[in-house]
Design goal:
With 160 residues, the protein is mostly helical. The chain has one domain. β3 and β4 form a beta hairpin. The chain is globular, with a radius of gyration of 17 Å.
């Protein structure tokens, strides 16, 4: 195994595990419920029976992405500090930027929903029964793919 391979593997594990922490442990309930809201798909709750629309959805998604990215940054900082991860800070910042931008796009939900329906996966995306949530599973599959691809790109030519 080359050092680039080990670097890519470590980056992928850190991005994915700290990404999961950002999605499931750090994200607020409000952000989780509201981040996909749009005027055409309002989200209602006890505090806002009229519903959250596009503006609230965008704000909640930005809030979530900020905490998600900070969680991934903490993981990358720890990995670099504890293992001597040979990826320069500017490259790690680029990885976090790609992660944040794609995370926002995916978590606003409409693009992923459209892609699922356009590729014949619409019924699975819409499935929310029998303990399965197709939208959440597809969301995580895309996030994981982005994590691995950015890890591979960041590990390309590693210099301190």
């Amino acid at each position: 195994m080359t050092s680039r391979t080990a670097t890519a593997a470590l980056l992928a594990v850190v991005l994915d595990s700290f990404g999961a922490a950002g999605d499931y442990l750090i994200q607020t309930d409000h952000d989780a419920r509201t981040k996909g809201a749009a005027d055409s798909r309002p989200v209602t709750c006890d505090q806002h029976p009229a519903g959250h629309g596009t503006r609230d959805g965008r704000a909640a998604c930005l809030s979530h992405v900020a905490s998600f990215t900070a969680t991934q940054a903490a993981g990358l900082f720890a990995a670099r500090r504890l293992t001597g991860l040979p990826v320069p800070p500017a490259r790690l910042a680029a990885v976090l930027a790609v992660s944040a931008i794609t995370h926002y796009a995916i978590d606003r939900r409409e693009g992923l929903r459209r892609a699922a329906h356009a590729t014949g996966k619409g019924q699975f995306y819409d499935l929310a029964d029998h303990g399965i949530n197709g939208a959440a599973l597809m969301d995580q599959a895309v996030h994981k793919t982005v994590h691995v691809l950015t890890a591979l790109a960041a590990a390309g030519r590693t210099h301190r």
